[in-house]
Amino acid sequence: MTLKTLKIEAEKAIEKARDLKVLNNAFKKYLGKKSELTRILRSLEKLPKAKRVKVGKEANTLKNSLRIQFDKKARELKEKAQKETEEKEWIDVTVPGKRPVLGHLHPLTLVKRKAEEIFQAMGFTVIQGPEMENEWYNFDALNIPKDHPARDLWDTFYLKNGLLLRTHTSPVQIRFMEKNQPPLRIIVPGRIFRHEATDASHETNFYQLEGLMVSEQVSAANFKAIIEEFFQRFFEKPVKIRLIPSFFPFVEPGFQVDMTCLNCEGKGCPACSRTGWLEMMGAGMVHPNVLRAAGLNPKNWQGFAFGMGIDRLAMMKYKINDIRLFYSGDLRFLQQF
Amino acid sequence: MKFSYNFFRDYVSRLPKPEKLAELLTQHSFEVEEVKKTGGDFLLSIDILPNRAPDCFSHFGVAREIAAITKSTLKPLLVRGLISNKLKTRDYVSVDIRDKKACPRYTAKVLTDVKVGSSPKWLKDRLRVCGLNPINNIVDIANYVMLETGQPLHAFDGQKLEGKKIIVRFAKNREKIVTLDEQKFDLNPDVLVIADIKKPIAIAGLKGGKIPEIDKKTKIVVLESANFNPRVIRKSSRKLNLKTDASLRFEHGIDSNLTELAISRAAYLIQKIAGGKIAQGLIDIYTKKSYPKRIRLDYGYLIRLLGIKIERKEVKSILTKLGFKIIKEKFPNLIVEVPTWRLDVSIPEDLIEEIGRIYDYEKIPATFPIAALIPAKRNLNAFWEDMTKNILKEAGFTEVYNYSFISEDEVKIFNNENLIELENPMSKEQKYLRSSLIPNLLKNVQKNQKSFNKIRIFELGKIFGLKIKEKRQLAGLISGDDFYRLKGVMDLLLNKLGISNIWYDEHQPTPGQSKKALWHAKKCAEIKVDNKEIGFLGEISPRILQSLKIANKVVVFDLGFDKLQKLASEEHEYMSLSKFPSAVRDLAVLVPRGTKVVQVLNKINAAGGKLIRDIDLFDIYEGEELPQGKKNLAFHIIYQAKDRTLKSKEVDEIHQKIIKALEKDPTWQIRK
Q1: DSSP output for B304-324
Q2: b/e per residue B539-575 (b: at least 16 CB within 10 A)
């Protein structure tokens, strides 16, 4: 067979190969150890010199050229084969993913942590206190005397062991100031209890965040700055606050703190009864009798205190409309957080 | 409390429009909850703060606020009727107060020749706006003056008073009274009454009696304007379970100087509306007169407390408008006299509140405090609580918050002891404080089992008991999985909290315990660290699951969190990684069913020594192919040295040593 026919035949075989296996066989046939071309190249030495040079050159050229063509074809077929395999491995990307099973923290834990983080950044230390209290810490020391109508403001669970369930986190103010000299900055998150019929906005146990700052001269103006900063960071919106007169026996002056409605930004909407304001917490300047009850001299110290509902913050943040969901243990609710 | 807009008009010139008025009152005094047009008037629902009840459970008191806010003039009440010189009050009635503490002041006035009839329309309208029903002109005026001044009044028919006498005393046992609205009350010595010489004619501070009521034939009216001790009225009100507009005011305390003004005002209005003659003289038994207090206000302190400079002129103007008097001014102090109607004001801070709110809290700038740069201290309790919650969350658990209470039924099921009982529970569901987190967690399973077949929950909260008082507890459970799954979670949790040397001891219940046990008798362990028990791990007894109608098995852990926190540590040291390869050999051993894995592990470790890096129990098998009462334990034993590559021969030698050690027990058999 001449090199010429060999070339034609081999190129045809490359051209015709439809898969790698066929191409591989053709390679063996035309460029393999037992192929015609190899045989020609091996028999070169038997030829006379002049012919040997000529045939040798031609044979080598053919060999190189075929090699390139085989490689090229092989690449093409490989790509094609890969494409075909991938084609067969098609998946439906709209099938739902397999989620790892993670746990969930309670929304009140999340909100409490966020509030703690903001206050800690402003130097307020987190303090805890007992849920079972005596009348002194829960009422008397907070300037709420026995038999005074002011006590009616707190519907109280009394216990048969002579104690009661704290109706606010304020007793911790006294407990802390008894043991720590001002200047001081604390927050007290914790569970509190009210003897009230439950509905979408009332529970028998819920959470409060108390705050207290006492030093030689802490003012109402300072309170405004701290609390506005807190709400702005908590809701991540440039909300404003206002103080309106209110009464709590353990502060004087006493404030109700309103915040611009998150929904309408103060324009007035059904969520804020068209006032543009939402009631957020009770606060005020610490009453001298409270400082006295904690063993401090009111001549030397002054400060502010506030208390807000953590449940309420969470309800506003997540748009939850029923406080009872927090204590329902309903996983359909809890696993959304 | 309901207020009439028209009423305010009588006292305040340039009264703002109702909506504007509501806004101003909310900003400076009291929250106005509603403004509603009713007929030719507006109803304002104002939330009077409880400390301001003495002066502001009245239109005149709120008008004084409005005048101070709007800087307008407050018109005085007209009180001067025509007095008949010929008639003497003392000829018609005399007053005897038996308990001066219960009744610090009693004033009485008499009118004769009145014409009882229907009230004029304007008067009826005002009463209706404020939620009162018109009755007749005399009674209506008494009520009107209460709405106006805050002083409750009562009118008796002078001809129906036996012995022309009024006696203020506590009721006797078995005394009875029928009130104006025909209600019958059994009285007792806790209840203060107004009586004539024979019988009670009114419940003091609460309601009048039927017998001496004003009717169409009444000619002589005896007006009562008295001051009663708030505690006495509170007690009467509670004993009789009766609350009235009068008792509401008396309970909060009223200025005892107010009786006279109110009675004169009532007499004036009666004469104007119902005619009649006002008898000369006021019966006034006033034992302990109340005098105005004086307060020294330091102007510097005012600025320091509010954080804003208010001009002294402004300060004085606000105080004066509210009825305070500036007695003396000696820089930086003001000596301020407090009107007796302001029972709530007794210290400088009270005055600062008055000034601040009328001046407008809105004007106080938000100023950050100047304080030492002391960073917040870390609260270790909160830190470990957060850490624990995070670990359990990562392990797939959902946090729940349950009530701090448990019901009577639950107590029966769980046999809890030493419980703290509530004095005044809301319901049977909340009769006791929880002494364990487990009952409520199981209730969570009961509720969720319809929607979830695998449940993993935990709670970290306070539990209570007569002995333990109050402590933190951590409990959790899984349902739809087995004991070992939760045991693995415990190991993970404790390790992540930096606690090692954890082991699980079989729980040995006392005979008394086992009958009413919470735990499955054979699937329960004490969790121990060194030799200290820190909690329990186990399956809940089928008896309890049955009574709670829980379908799946439930495995629970219960840990004392205070104990746990004491053991927890943030210290953590890295263990160097060996550069040399490890070798693995498998070992299967057939042992009696009752043999504990830990016994086998101990023997392997003892025989293998330091070169064992890890032992992994990868299979426990019990089945038909095995001899009766036996189980097969299969281990991967991983050998590794820190300083060299172990030779195969060396590993085989140790492995053989282990096999020999295990085979010393004749009941154990190495499977080859």
Answers
A1: HHHTS---HHHHHHHHHHTT-
A2: bbbeebbeebebeebbbbbbbbbebbbebbeeeeeee
Superfamily of structural domain A107-334: Bira Bifunctional Protein; Domain 2 (3.30.930.10)
Is A150 tagged catalytic?
A: no
Copy the structure tokens of residue B487: 């045991």
How is domain B2-70 classified at the CATH fold level?
Phenylalanyl-tRNA Synthetase; Chain B, domain 1 (3.30.56)
pLDDT at position B515 is 58
Chain B residues lying within 8 Å of A133, measured CB to CB: none
Q: What is the pLDDT of residues B533-556, one digit of tens each?
A: 999 999 999 989 999 999 999 999
d(CA B363, CA A242): 10
The pLDDT value recorded for residue A299 is 94
Q: What is the pLDDT of residues A77-128, one digit of tens each?
A: 999 889 988 999 999 999 999 988 899 999 999 999 999 999 999 999 999 9
Residues 14-53 of B with CB under 8 A from A: 26-31, 49-53
Q: Which residue has the tokens 């569901």?
A: B429
Record the pTM: 0.87
Check if CATH label 3.30.70.380 holds for domain B583-671.
yes
DSSP helix, strand, coil percent of chain B (3-state; round to 5): 35, 30, 35
Beta bridge partners of B585: B637
Interface confidence, given as ipTM, is: 0.89
- CA triple A11-A15-A21, angle to 5 deg: 105
- What are A123-151's pLDDT values in tens digits? 999 999 999 999 999 999 999 988 776 77
Average pLDDT, chain B: 93
Report the pLDDT averaged over residues B368-378: 92
Please indicate whether, in this complex, the C-beta atoms of B305 and A285 are within 8 angstroms of each other.
yes
Q: What are phi and psi of B197, to 5 degrees?
A: -70, -15
Q: Which numeric CATH code is attached to B293-363? A: 3.30.56.10
3.40.50.10420, 3.50.40.10, 3.40.630.40, 3.40.120.10: which CATH number matches B83-286?
3.50.40.10
**All structural domains of chain A with their residue ranges:** 3-88, 107-334
Each residue's pLDDT tens digit, B226-253: 999 999 999 999 999 999 999 999 999 9
Q: If you search the block for the tokens 């709007």, which residue do you land on?
A: B70
**The pLDDT value given to residue B512:** 63
Query: Is B575 touching A (CB cutoff 8 A)?
Result: no
Q: Which residue has the tokens 């806790």?
A: B190
Is B28–A245 a contact, with Cβ atoms under 8 angstroms apart? yes
- Cα–Cα distance measured from residue B262 to residue A44, given in angstroms and rounded to the nearest whole number: 141
Among chain A residues, the shortest Cα distance to B354 is held by A253
Q: Which helix (H) or strand (E) is B608 found in, with range?
A: helix B597-608
Would you say residue B516 has pLDDT above 70? no
DSSP β-bridge partners for residue B100: none
Catalytic residue check, A194: yes
Residues 439-458 of chain B with CB under 8 A from chain A are: 440-441, 443-444, 447-448, 451-452, 455-457
Arithmetic mean of pLDDT, B383-397: 97
Residues B447, A160: C-beta atoms closer than 8 Å: no
Rounded average pLDDT over B500-509: 84
| Pick from B644, B642, B624: nearest CA to B632 | B624
Architecture field, domain B380-567: 2-Layer Sandwich (3.30)
